[in-house]
Specification:
Layout (H helix, E strand, L loop, with lengths): L2 E5 L4 H12 L3 E6 L6 H4 L8 E5 L14 E4 L6 H6 L1 H22 L2 E7 L26 H21 L3 E6 L2 E2 L10 H10 L4 E4 L5 E3 L1 E2 H13 L9 E3 L4 E3 H12 L5 E4 L14 H7 L7 H22 L1
Parallel strand pairs: 1-2, 1-4, 2-3, 4-5, 5-6, 6-11, 7-10, 8-13
Antiparallel strand pairs: 9-12
Helix pairs in contact: 1-7, 4-5, 6-8, 6-10, 8-10
The protein binds uridine-5'-diphosphate.
């Protein structure tokens, strides 16, 4: 049994990670300021003796009592919807917050995993994106608070590894979805599913020809744990984690319409600034190092998301 700290542990990916690590017999310290994370996500875990929730903002210095074996640093708002309204908070979480999380790992001599993002590739000029591509990020654009702070955090984690001999790992997470995303999250799958289920217009940005590759939450959690637990990965650099099945946003909308049997119309809005036109990870490195690749088909995962939305909205109706 290990004692594991997870920053951002009440978020969508963080809470799924808390649950898996607890189920595997570990003790978990979940740290979150609940800015985009929700107490609801971890409510079913809080009665467990091996679960400790600390409401803290990691941009302020923090400490954790007792020994710590591993630190997963996930904390950050991650929806493009928040990039303009919470830019400063995001920039500071991905800089000062990362510094504080690294200091904790250093103090405890813990292994450290930083969750970076496909956004470090920006508007990619290479396709698919492999880890040796340095990216094409607009440093002053609307997404910069997220993209650049994640790039800075990759650098800072690497420097801590080189300077202090800390064992650090970097996951570059591509689009991830699953039950448990906030309905108002703003990202494409929660938006389209809630619109389709309510027969409201499905809001497509641009002409819908931009692509993404969507990875199911259970596969992502599995990849993160493998990246953390695999021995002798020191100095192996960032690892892409995501699905390599690429689809257009328009195809996604039609898929969700079909599965839900929705009568929603498709409406086409303006394309947001710096919205990547194509995105698909090269995941060969993850397979070579970790023996990992995603298993869940998009249609299967989407059905699970839709079922969860249907059951929670019927629960709300019953409670009225
Ligand atoms: N998108 C869309 N309609 C929405 C929300 C998002 O067409 O209601 C598009 C968005 O412009 C982007 C893609 O879907 O091209 C994925 O967006 P998301 O916010 O989920 O994440 P991103 O990959 O941009 O970080």
């Amino acid at each position: 049994m290990e004692r594991i700290v997870i920053t951002g542990g009440a978020g969508f990916i963080g809470s799924a990670l808390c649950e898996r690590l607890l189920n595997e017999g570990n003790s978990v310290v979940c740290i979150d300021n609940l800015s985009s994370g929700r107490r609801l996500n971890i409510a079913h875990l809080e009665s467990r003796e091996s679960m400790l929730f600390l409401k803290k903002d990691i941009t302020e210095h923090f400490s954790v009592e007792g020994s710590v074996d591993k630190v997963y640093h996930l904390a950050s708002m991650a929806s493009p919807k928040d990039f303009e309204s919470h830019a400063l908070e995001i920039a500071l979480t991905g800089s000062i917050g990362t510094l504080n999380a690294l200091e904790l790992a250093r103090e405890k001599n813990a292994r450290f995993l930083f969750t970076s993002t496909s956004e470090v590739y920006g508007q990619p000029t290479r396709h698919p994106q492999s880890e040796d591509y340095w990216g094409n990020v607009n440093p002053v654009g609307v997404r910069a608070c997220y993209d650049e702070s994640k790039r800075f955090s990759e650098m800072l984690s690497t420097v801590f590894g080189r300077t202090y001999g800390l064992d650090i790992r970097i996951a570059r997470i591509f689009n991830t979805y699953g039950p448990g995303m906030r309905p108002g999250d703003g990202r494409v799958i929660p938006n389209f599913v809630s619109q389709a289920l309510q027969n409201r217009p499905i809001t497509i940005n641009g002409d819908g020809q931009q692509t993404r590759s969507f990875c199911y939450i259970d596969d992502m959690v599995d990849g993160l744990i493998r990246l953390m637990n695999t021995e002798k990965l020191k100095d192996s650099g960032p690892v892409n984690l995501g699905s390599d099945r690429e689809i257009t946003v328009l195809q996604l909308a039609n898929m969700i319409k079909d599965i839900t049997g929705s009568e929603s119309k498709l409406v086409f809005n303006e394309m947001p600034q710096d919205d990547p036109v194509r995105r698909r990870p090269d995941i060969r490195k993850a397979y070579q190092l970790l023996g990992w690749k995603p298993k869940t088909a998009l249609s299967t995962g989407l059905r699970k998301v839709i079922e969860r939305y249907q059951s929670t909205s019927s629960m709300k109706q019953n409670a009225k």
